[in-house]
Structure to design on (449 residues):
């Protein structure tokens, strides 16, 4: 089909996603409309986002004396409230509804999560976990719908900074739950390390490390200089308190990817794609060096971790062998059904292995295919850099790259956590920019006519 014929049918050929003329898209809100978004609504979104980090889970729902989960009416109420707020925002805003319906990669992941209940070894757990994932994922899309473009990034990073401040306050006021204790019912090896408002020191470390990276890159675009410095210090204190190697990696690679993407997006258009290729080759070389053990000194001496990633690399093959022999390898054990607990006494701590255990040989390639598609669309957005909105256009690529890397030693894919929200924000920004490109092409075509 020629570009002229495609435009006649309302299809964007060079955009990020295809749109037809029947699309219900309307122009995004103006700056005045964004600022007119009720402060109360922003506050409610912020509270929901904090609990979706997730925060206060162990503090409210775990009996620290027995190690038993006792549940929490507060957490249950917050989950229900977040779900109601998300659906009300989608139903009440045409722009938000249009954005959500166009974000089919996220909707497809939600569909697969619910569909796995058909063969899940624990259907009730799968449905419950899928519902929680749906709520968390849609929350990110709603934030982009109500606060388009860079406004959504600013909002999320500000709430992340508040999360670091809350963690420090929790350490000061409630150290028995905010700091790992020798009396804890599990993982006493971490005694003395901070977990803040999170359930584990690794959660606080990843969260604070990513907050540091985003604050270092966006700087005063997020906060005025004195406030920015205060929250940056809070984030650094949280990272040091957690002693998390994952957090340290996040604090380094997040601004590295952002600065590299910004550099590429600001190059003349003919040079962007070749530079992306060079950048990808560089990352591949670093990965190969890690695989060959060349970076062992960095891992052991600087990060203080063993070269086998604290034993994880040794027991992943054991878990997979047990899975192959379990009879679940074709369809998997079901999303959120905790099949990994049946495969090994060790925690998987690998997002890729986790998804394979949950979805098996049949669905996992589709899940990972969606992950690759999101990465590809993020790259396309950096190369095209439409509208000159560089700060927002580079966010999906950089954040998704960080998520893909950190899931090698963490299990954050499709869970109730910050990564899920950021993934939805990234996809929402990609689709939103595609909608803008579609609208610009339609306007240009009409002018030609």
């Amino acid at each position: 089909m020629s570009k002229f014929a495609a435009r006649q049918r309302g299809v964007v050929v060079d955009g990020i996603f295809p749109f037809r003329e029947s699309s219900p898209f309307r122009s995004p809100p103006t700056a005045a409309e964004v600022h007119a978004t009720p402060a109360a609504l922003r506050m409610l979104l912020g509270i929901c986002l904090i609990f979706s980090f997730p925060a206060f889970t162990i503090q409210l729902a775990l009996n620290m004396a027995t190690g038993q989960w006792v549940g929490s009416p507060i957490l249950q109420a917050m989950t229900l409230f977040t779900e109601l707020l998300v659906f009300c925002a989608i139903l009440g805003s045409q722009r938000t509804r249009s954005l959500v319906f166009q974000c089919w990669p996220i909707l497809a992941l939600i569909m697969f999560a619910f569909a796995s209940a058909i063969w899940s070894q624990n259907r009730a757990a799968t449905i419950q976990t899928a519902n929680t994932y749906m709520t968390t994922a849609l929350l990110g899309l709603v934030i982009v719908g109500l606060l388009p473009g860079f406004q959504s990034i600013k909002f999320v990073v500000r709430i992340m900074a508040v999360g670091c401040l809350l963690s420090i306050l929790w350490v000061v006021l409630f150290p028995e739950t905010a700091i790992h204790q020798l009396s804890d019912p599990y993982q006493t090896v971490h005694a003395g390390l901070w977990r803040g408002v999170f359930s584990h020191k690794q959660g606080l470390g990843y969260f604070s490390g990513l907050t540091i990276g985003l604050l270092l890159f966006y700087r005063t675009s997020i906060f005025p200089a004195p406030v920015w410095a205060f929250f940056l210090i809070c984030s650094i204190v949280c990272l040091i308190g957690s002693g998390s190697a994952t957090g340290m990696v996040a604090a380094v690679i997040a601004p590295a990817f952002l600065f590299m993407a910004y550099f590429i997006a600001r190059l003349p258009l003919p040079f962007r794609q070749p530079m992306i290729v060079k950048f990808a080759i560089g990352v591949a070389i670093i990965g190969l060096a890690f695989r060959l053990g060349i970076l062992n000194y960095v891992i052991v001496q600087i990060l203080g971790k063993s070269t086998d990633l604290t034993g994880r690399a040794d027991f992943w093959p054991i878990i997979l062998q047990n899975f192959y022999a379990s009879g679940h390898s074709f369809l998997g054990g079901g999303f959120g059904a905790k099949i990994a607990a049946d495969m090994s006494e060790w925690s998987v701590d690998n997002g890729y292995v986790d998804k394979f255990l949950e979805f098996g040989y049949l669905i996992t390639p589709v899940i990972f295919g969606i992950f690759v598609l999101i990465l590809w669309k993020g790259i396309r957005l950096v190369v095209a850099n439409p509208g000159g909105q560089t700060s927002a256009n580079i966010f999906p690529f950089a954040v998704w790259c960080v998520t893909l890397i950190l899931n090698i030693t963490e299990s954050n894919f499709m869970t109730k956590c910050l990564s899920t929200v950021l993934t939805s924000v990234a996809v929402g920004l990609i689709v939103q920019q595609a909608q803008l490109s579609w609208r610009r092409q339609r306007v240009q075509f009409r002018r030609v006519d």
Summary: The longest strand covers residues 62-63.
